[in-house]
Write a structure and sequence with these properties.
209 residues, alpha/beta, seven-stranded parallel beta sheet, 19 strands
Length: 209
């Protein structure tokens, strides 16, 4: 087979694989009763976001119904904080109704217990249309490497896209609402009412549009 034919064959395999296997995984609040992995319909939807993210492959979408989401705690990403949602692959997590009716809620940090950040995400991940609230990481953590790892009580974005979100009432030593780096993009978001011990109660880094 010539080099051109090999290239065309490789493109065809890649394209058909992506278009054939990209899937949508569904999430409803905790009152859902028939969760069946990999959650490919509303009738078998996951009852927390993390389960659906874990079931998804790169390129898939996780579609989230209106409600409050506090379960599905994951230690993915940095070990310095527990994350309600951890998106460490190229998956889009999007709400149906937008940030006015879809909430990812963390928990206030308490000495002796791991802090609960709302969302940790990496390159290729997309978070769209959520109200991210009450996420905390250890505000007393001033050692710089640990403080960076603790950054972002609401969202710690080590790459990825955050779109059309409200990030409010979160706390951290650095970047209380969002601590973004690694080429992260923040678009159309409202970041308000967050508290930091060092700098940037709103967004510590990232490109804002």
């Amino acid at each position: 087979m010539t080099g051109r034919r090999l290239a065309v064959a490789a493109w065809y395999v890649t394209f058909t694989t992506i278009t054939t296997f990209a899937a949508v995984h569904y999430v409803v609040p905790q009152n859902g009763t028939n969760a069946i992995s990999p959650y490919l319909s509303w009738s078998t939807a996951a009852t927390n976001i993390q389960d659906a993210v874990d079931a998804a492959l790169s390129g898939d979408t996780v579609l989230v119904s209106n409600g409050w989401y506090t379960l599905g705690v994951s230690s993915g990403g940095y070990a310095f904080a527990t994350n309600v949602v951890s998106i460490t692959k190229a998956v889009t997590v999007a709400s149906v109704g937008g940030p006015g009716v879809t909430f990812i809620c963390g928990r206030e940090w308490r000495p002796g217990e791991p802090p609960w950040r709302c969302v940790y995400m990496e390159q290729g991940a997309v978070l769209a249309g959520f109200n991210v609230t009450n996420g905390w990481t250890d505000p007393s953590c001033t050692n710089w490497p640990d403080a960076v790892a603790n950054g972002g009580g609401g969202i710690h974005a080590n790459g990825g896209i955050i779109s059309n979100c409200i990030v409010a009432q979160c706390s951290a030593y650095l970047g209380a609402g969002i601590y973004a780096r690694g080429g992260s993009l923040i678009a159309g978001c409202t970041i308000t009412g967050n508290v930091t011990q060092a700098y940037s109660g709103g967004n510590g880094g990232g490109l804002c549009l």
